[in-house]
Design a protein that fits this description.
The protein has 13 helices and 8 strands. It is an alpha/beta fold and 315 residues long.
């Protein structure tokens, strides 16, 4: 598949996955690739953790849109800010200011579970409608909350039969269930627990929310070691090294290599298991040596993402 075709096939990509699998990194990588292909992109952060901005070497993302790099803008959306804008659109600016100042949103959220999420998603829907950017990429909470986050509209639609909240819920459902407007990209690592959770999340999102799922991104996959290093021969390893290793050091190096080879085998096994459990295309991103990723690393991952999308069959 042409990467530009994928990035042009929808207006909103929602990135979801278990905490710790590199979901925010993938969000940044998608935006980088889109921008490199000429698609003006808006990154939306909803938790305010600051991870997206750090990847681009930029100041923390705020409510006011800011530019992270050429072709990529970013903004933070919180329930309080979304509520203010929603009420202002209804001509209720004073009420909006009062609700936020008094903390009344907490009371409303208790009375109507899911209202915070629907406010955020409603604001995202408005941004899609404004069409100021070719593509919006949304970094969701961790997958446990991602399901309730995306399911909130259906819950509120069932709970509130009429009025503005019901209309907001229906608008959000219309966004989430139209693949021309929205797709979800799930992120995992090739490990048992993240794969198990991703499969569960994927079916829950399809069954409960009705969203279209894009390719699965398998992050931090190890590159295969040279074939002449497997199986590990301690004596041969000591003889090949320059300067030569003593037996004890060679044994430690061999142990590390064996661990690496075992990790590779485990990853391939989990990728195969994921392919059976969830029949979606997989795009692999490599494990990088850097402890803290920066914009140069995102560029490397962007190239890998482009290669992975290109290898996918055309839809």
């Amino acid at each position: 598949m042409d990467p530009l075709q994928f990035l042009s096939s929808t207006r909103l990509i929602i990135v979801a996955g278990k905490g710790g699998v590199g979901k925010t990194t993938v969000t940044a990588t998608l935006a980088h690739l889109a921008a490199s292909l000429g698609r003006s992109t808006l990154l939306v952060e909803v938790e305010g953790k600051g991870g997206l901005a750090e990847l681009f070497g930029a100041p923390p993302i705020t409510y006011d849109p800011s530019q992270l790099m050429e072709g990529i803008d970013a903004r933070l959306i919180t329930p309080d800010q979304a509520l203010v804008e929603w009420l202002q659109d209804k001509g209720l600016r004073r009420l909006a200011d009062r609700l936020v100042k008094t903390g009344a949103l907490d009371v409303i959220a208790t009375a109507a579970p899911g209202i915070r999420d629907i406010l955020v998603l409603g604001r995202v829907k408005a941004l899609v409608n404004e069409a100021a950017h070719d593509l919006i990429v949304l970094d969701t909470p961790a997958s446990g909350h991602a399901i309730s986050f995306l399911q909130s509209a259906r819950g509120l639609q069932d709970a509130v039969n009429v009025g503005a909240i019901n209309q907001q819920a229906r608008d959000v459902i219309g966004l989430l269930t139209d693949p021309r407007l929205c797709q979800v990209v799930l992120v995992t690592m090739a490990e048992a627990t993240p794969v198990n959770e991703l499969v569960e999340t994927a079916y829950a999102l399809e069954d409960r929310v009705g969203v279209a799922l894009g390719p699965v991104v398998v992050n931090r996959v190890l590159s295969p070691l040279a074939s002449d290093l497997a199986p590990v021969d301690v004596a041969a390893l000591a003889g090949k090294s320059r300067p030569k290793l003593n037996a004890a050091d060679a044994a430690r190096v061999a142990q590390a290599l064996e661990f690496r080879l075992a990790s590779e085998t485990s990853q391939r096994s989990e990728q195969a298991r994921l392919a059976v459990a969830l029949p979606l295309p997989q795009v692999v991103l490599p494990a990088l040596a850097a402890h803290a990723l920066d914009i140069d690393d995102i560029a490397v991952l962007s190239a890998a993402l482009a290669a992975g999308l290109t290898a996918m069959p055309a839809s």
